[in-house]
Amino acid sequence: MITVNMHEAKSQLSKLVLAATNGEEVVLCSNGRPKARIVPISTRPALRDLTPDPALAPTLAIGYDPDEPLAKEEFPNGIL
Which of 16, 17, 36, 66 is the most exposed place for a label (fewest CB within 10 A)? Predict the structure, then answer.
């Protein structure tokens, strides 16, 4: 693990980033206390599962026609 203070890190930033890229843990300190860590960016983004959840599928009432306009009393909270 490489521990370096902020002032020293300013002058050696390229070396510290290279060390982090090569798997070294780099910790930046201020007043002797750890404040930040330099870590490499993952080159391969995590894959997400985009399969639709069947439990979230909408269910429509029998006889519902989405093209039919709503009657005045069917609007929620008396919008009309």
Answer: 66
- Edge-to-edge strand ranges of the sheet holding 26-30: 2-5, 26-30, 33-38
- CATH code of the domain made up of 2-38: 3.40.1620.10
SS3 content of the chain, % helix, strand, coil (to 5): 30, 20, 50
pLDDT of residue 35: 95
Beta bridge partners of 37: 27
Q: Are 25 and 37 in contact (CB under 8 A)?
A: yes
Look at the block and give the residue holding tokens 């960016």: 41
- Within 13 Å of residue 78, how many CA atoms lie on the same side as its CB? 0
Q: Could you identify the residue written with the tokens 């029998």? A: 62
pLDDT at res. 79: 67
